[in-house]
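Data availability excerpt. The first of two example chains:
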Amino acid sequence: AAPSDGPPPVRAWADKDPAAAVRLAAAREAVTGLAEHYVLPVENLLAPDSLRRLCWAPPVPEPDEEQVAAFLAGAGARPWQVELTARTISEALRKAAAQAAVPAELADNG
């Protein structure tokens, strides 16, 4: 089998990059909420692979809506998918980054 250019299997994220695992959990929860709101299957709202790639290697640690939108469009998301998801995903990723920073700050002060 050819090597994959994508992120590792999700089950390995907690060991390989715990912050990415936190980002993915937050983003999945956000997209699931949107899918329920719009009464769409999650995978129709946004391809799971696009979300995994964004969470594994975001363009910056705390991407804003425009950066998330550009990433998703570059990953092949349709304009309507980007429009419905970019803001919510960027908010989830910024919250995840803030949560991940708290333990590090506590450890630094200890």
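And the second chain:
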Amino acid sequence: PVVSPDGRSVAFVGYATTANTYSQGDLHVIGVDGSGMRNLSDALDRLIGDIHWASDNSGVYVAVTSQGTRNVKFVPRTGAIRDVTSGDHVLGLSSVAGGAQPFGVGVATS
């Protein structure tokens, strides 16, 4: 779980209890008081990790694994998920600077 810069929300990856042997988590945001939980990645059927809040609390940057690659996406609180990077490489999202610029380190896969 990652607390937002304003201290009012928490972003986390999780899923409902299930008897399945494998479940892929979704990205959720919830108030620190436990209210208003929302699934932000319902339409994204991929493995999500490396959660970092944008400095303006507008959403989170995440690393998304898909078909042997890993790229950075921005998941806003409202609106469409957008690609920050694309390509055949594996990126790990290391940090997001004060100006909301993500920084990652990657390895080319092709």
